[in-house]
Write a sequence for this structure.
């Protein structure tokens, strides 16, 4: 804030110098042919010019300083928000590493999926493998007796209005073992009740 206050004062000083130069040049060259009565009018004009410069300088300082304070407050808010987000993210990572569950988040709109590291530990697949799509390709890795049921459950859940889905199925791991999964899902919906 101190540095920004100094830069504001520098701008104001430059403004005052430029204004004084302008009034000097305009009085000396532009208006030198005007007839003035005695020296009182000339002195009055000089005082008026100086008061104008002083008043506009104070106004400029006020507006510049107010903008700087607003910018500083916005920067502080952004820094505070980023720090708060970092703390929440650290806590979230601590929670996800404290469980053996596979946590996941499927962004249906952008067709991206996030899974915690337990997905790879339990299945052998990288967390970004088997991204769901229109054809639900991850269903191909389920036990053949579970595929159609899960596909139907998922389609009904996404096209309906429900916000919670719970199911159990078997999934083939990368080393060809079958593991049992109990999947509990919360479905986010936008204002038009479309799953997102």
């Amino acid at each position: 804030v101190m540095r920004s206050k100094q830069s504001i004062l520098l701008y104001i000083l430059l403004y005052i110098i430029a204004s004084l130069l302008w009034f000097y040049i305009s009085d000396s060259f532009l208006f030198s042919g005007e007839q003035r009565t005695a020296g009182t009018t000339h002195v009055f004009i000089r005082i008026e010019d100086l008061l104008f410069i002083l008043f506009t300088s104070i106004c400029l300082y006020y507006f510049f300083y107010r903008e700087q304070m607003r910018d500083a407050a916005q920067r502080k808010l952004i820094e505070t928000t980023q720090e708060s987000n970092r703390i929440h993210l650290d806590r979230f990572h601590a929670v996800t590493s404290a469980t053996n569950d596979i946590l996941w988040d499927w962004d249906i709109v952008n067709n991206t999926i996030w899974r915690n590291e337990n997905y790879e530990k339990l299945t052998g697949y990288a967390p970004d493998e088997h991204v769901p799509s229109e054809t639900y390709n991850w269903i191909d890795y389920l036990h053949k007796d579970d595929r159609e049921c899960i596909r139907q459950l998922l389609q009904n859940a996404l096209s309906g209005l429900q916000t919670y889905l719970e199911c159990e199925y078997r999934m083939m791991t990368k080393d060809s073992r079958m593991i049992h999964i109990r999947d509990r899902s919360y479905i986010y919906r936008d204002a038009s009740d479309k799953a997102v």
In short: The two ends are 43 Å apart (CA to CA). The longest strand covers residues 164-172. The longest helix spans residues 40-98. Residues 13 and 42 are 25 Å apart (CA to CA).
